[in-house]
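hey
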């Protein structure tokens, strides 16, 4: 059974006419999942309400308080822009908090129930930096979830796999100096935001960037996963908790 964390409240993050990060991105995925032959194997759950989580604590693990308050104030004033393509509407702050809550619920689902989880939420997060939003992204959901997971009993390492046409510059910037978090990104290059070069390996060798040429197909992605991504992640799972080297660990 696959648990899907979703709420119609995610549709209330309004980005304006013609903006590509729109509510229909979510509804299209939801409709496709509901129509698939395996739909009876999906368990839909609503995220924990933001009032029931100490989300400010979780947010401040990766974001500055000044930035969090900036987003809140912008929403309270009716909305505006964090940068040229990252709008905030009156509801966006609360919706972004709910998205974070959904990601934390995903961690809890995997750890406490032993079930896989899929987070169908917006706004997205992998471009958001610690002190500013960009690229449609407000809070760095994956990085927040990774830090939250490390707070749970028995969790010593977390790996983030980011498969997107764009490099997750925000996620990488937040976790690349954290010895317990590995980050791997497959992304088109050249492309926005111009980061994610193969030479970017993190403070602990914990970053693996795999730039892909425009037009790459399954024939290109399959060997990348089989020969680069999976060997690294497999080595991570078998490594001693005391070892702080990752991608280029001599023991893998």
């Amino acid at each position: 059974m696959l648990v899907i964390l979703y709420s119609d409240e995610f549709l209330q993050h309004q980005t304006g006419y013609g903006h590509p990060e729109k509510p229909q991105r979510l509804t299209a995925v939801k409709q496709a999942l509901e129509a698939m032959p395996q739909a009876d194997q999906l368990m839909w759950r609503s995220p924990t309400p933001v009032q029931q989580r100490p989300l400010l604590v979780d947010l401040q693990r990766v974001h500055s308080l000044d930035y969090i308050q900036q987003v809140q104030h912008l929403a309270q004033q009716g909305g505006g822009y964090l940068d040229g393509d990252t709008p905030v509407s009156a509801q966006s702050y609360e919706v972004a908090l709910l998205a974070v809550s959904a990601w934390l619920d995903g961690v809890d689902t995997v750890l406490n129930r032993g079930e896989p989880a899929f987070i169908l939420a917006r706004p997205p997060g992998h471009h958001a930096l610690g002190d500013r939003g960009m690229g449609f992204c407000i809070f760095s959901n994956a990085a927040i979830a990774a830090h939250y997971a490390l707070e749970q009993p028995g969790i010593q390492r977390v790996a983030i796999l980011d498969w997107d046409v764009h490099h997750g510059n925000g996620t990488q910037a937040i976790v690349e100096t954290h010895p317990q978090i590995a980050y791997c990104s497959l992304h088109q290059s050249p492309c926005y935001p111009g980061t994610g070069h193969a030479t970017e390996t993190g403070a602990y060798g914990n970053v693996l960037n795999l730039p892909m040429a425009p037009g790459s197909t399954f024939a290109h992605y399959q060997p990348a996963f089989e020969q680069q991504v999976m060997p690294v992640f497999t080595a991570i799972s078998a490594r001693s908790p005391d070892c702080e080297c990752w991608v280029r660990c001599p023991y893998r």
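Residues 247-252 have pLDDT under 50 and may be disordered. Helices lie at 23-35, 55-59, 65-76, 92-113, 141-150, 169-175, 218-238.
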